[in-house]
Amino acid sequence: xxxxxxxxxxxxxxxxxxxxxxxxxxxxxxxxxxxxxxxxxxxxxxxxxxxxxxxxxxxxxxxxxxxxxxxxxxxxxxxxxxxxxxxxxxxxxxxxxxxxxxxxxxxxxxxxxxxxxxxxxxxxxxxxxxxxxxxxxxxxxxxxxxxxxxxxxxxxxxxxxxxxxxxxxxxxxxxxxxxxxxxxxxxxxxxxxxxxxxxxxxx
Length: 203
Description:
By secondary structure, the chain is an alpha/beta fold. The protein is built from seven helices and six strands; from the N terminus they run ββββααβαβαααα.
C-alpha cells in the first residue's frame, strides 16, 4: 500500500454540514473509511469510524441543509461530541490504519473531495488540533475517477455504472456516503493497478 501511493494511505471522508461555506457553517457529521487490502492484494474498504458533532460556537446552520440531510440536532440518540473530541475519535482510527500499512500519512478521498477537506481543515484550525493525519491540500476525487472510468460524475450514477448498489433514501448520511464512495474508489483503483491494464485486470 505504501509503495502504491507514494507513502500515502487513501482514506475516504464524508462530512455532513450546516451549509456549504466551511468558514461559516457548522460541521455536523464525519465518517472515515481507510482503504485496506484483502488476501489477494486488492483494495477493499476498511472499517468505518464516525462522529456526530455539536455545532461549534459562532457557526451557522442553514435549515435547508438539515432538510436535505435529515439530521435532527436534538435527537436523543445522536450522541454528538465537541469538535476536538470528535476529531480525536476519527483521527485515531486513521492513524492506526496509516501505521498498519507503513504509510507516512493519509490522503483524503472524497466525492467533491475539497468540500470535505475544507470543512475538515477548518475544524482542525478551530480546535488547534496538532495531530491531523491528512495531507493538507492533496486529495483523490471520485468525481474525477468516476468521470474517467464510467463517464459519470454524480455519485449515484457512477455507482450504478460501476455495478454497485445505491439507495438514495440512505444518502446524506456520512457513514453511508463514505462507505459507498470507498466502494467506488476501490473498484476504480483495482482496475488501474500499476503494471496492468483495466482489460487485463477484469479478464
